[in-house]
Design a protein that fits this description.
The chain has 22 helices and 15 strands. By secondary structure, it is of the alpha/beta class. It has four domains: 2-139, Rossmann fold (3-Layer(aba) Sandwich), CATH 3.40.50.300; 147-222; 237-241 and 249-396, Rossmann fold (3-Layer(aba) Sandwich), CATH 3.40.50; 401-475, Helicase, Ruva Protein, domain 3, CATH 1.10.8.
Amino acid sequence: MPQTQDLATLIRAGTALITIETVEEAAAIEAFRHVLGQVWRPLYRWSITDGLKRLDIDQDAPEGGVEVAPDATQTLLAVKAEKERGVYLMCDFHPYLRYAMTQRLVREIVGRQGSAAHTLVLISPKVELPPELDGVAVRFSLDLPDDAALGKLVRDEAFVYSREHGGKRVEVDPAALKLIVRNLRGLSLGDARRIARQLIFRDGAISMGDLPELAKLKFELLNKAGLLHFEYDTAQFSDVAGLAKLKAWVQQRRAVFTGEARAALDPPRGVLLLGVQGCGKSLAAKAVAGGFGVPLVRLDFGTMYNKFHGETERNLRESLKNAEALAPCVLWIDEIEKGLAQSTSDDGVSRRVLGYLLTWMAERKANVFLVATANAVLELPAELLRKGRFDEIFFVDLPTPQVRADVLRLHFTKRKIDWEAFELAPLVEASEGYSGAEIEQAIVAGLYAAHAEDAPLSDRHVLAELRNTRPLSVLMAEKVNALRDWALSRTVPAD
């Protein structure tokens, strides 16, 4: 077992201070119990409630039978006086390091000042060390449960349900069980157990209908900082007008991304969607997640930035780590240029954020498909645009006449209006240069005009709104045309 071997190596190497951040205290203690087979040293556990207890033999006190009070100072004095090298698991001990006496004793034990070569292990959900100790500590992460352990966990919870419901068996869909186990990856055993229990006890079954709820529960569990946003309303390609080439691209890669195909192909990594504002980039991002059939999470760069040194980079690391734990999923970074714009007044934060993002994009192993959307392409750093960062760069242009007709049909249907009662040809002609969002707004304005007249919506109302409005392609003609010219020979048309 690699985890046991790594811990044994650290102890044999004489590592004086190890920190383990975990809520699974019992799992951490059990890992050290397994280490005893490779490292013949006494193993102790300390907590403020139980004091110091020996774990490798049935004995409550250290060697010699001396009782030690739970007091942190008295415990450290006893550890320092102990001549036989031992491993001491200190549970929730780090708050006591704020006191000068406690901190000094730990420094002397770690520095072998009048002490045997002990190994102190600080175990807590979050371990904060003073600078004097932070430099000598080794941070260790426990292995997460594998598929076999997760499968056993789900079966155990099914047995508990059966026992508590008079022997009623849990209805199990084998395909759903396999997907649930796969989606529980990245969670600790305790967290996975709580989610599995909720899914099973909800309806006494394991089915495909549990997958959306699992994704929601897993996201809420991981996203405690609130930097990611779970998009509950993904779209299907049928909800999106146009984008034919993008749709075909996603469909070609769906089976490989989801693992349904066993082809020896690298899974797709991500796409960059450039385009005119209002032409459907955000909707396309949602449709990509719907096309792959996986959850969609959005990273908001605006909430990620922090005025304190190093916090922005830490927020990005945590966000990407949580996205990986949700895999398979689609990670959507909206208006990515706003988070990566170069500035001389941010002390190099944007450069460090860009560097870490590029490294993650190149080296990530988790099945996370990145969809980045951007409006101002010239503000994007060149490092992000070079070939290989994204699988493809698609340009979402102003809709063609056929796409504008489809947009009209979709928005009429969305509002339960019979589109066949309308003459679409004049509306399509009048909406030349309009984005999809602007066409939708013309229908909304037409509905208000019809309501004011106490009349049903007609061609006249929509046509009047289209003729009385100036689209963005007219108001910002120079910028829109420059963007379209830039993309003409540098990107792949989405439609």
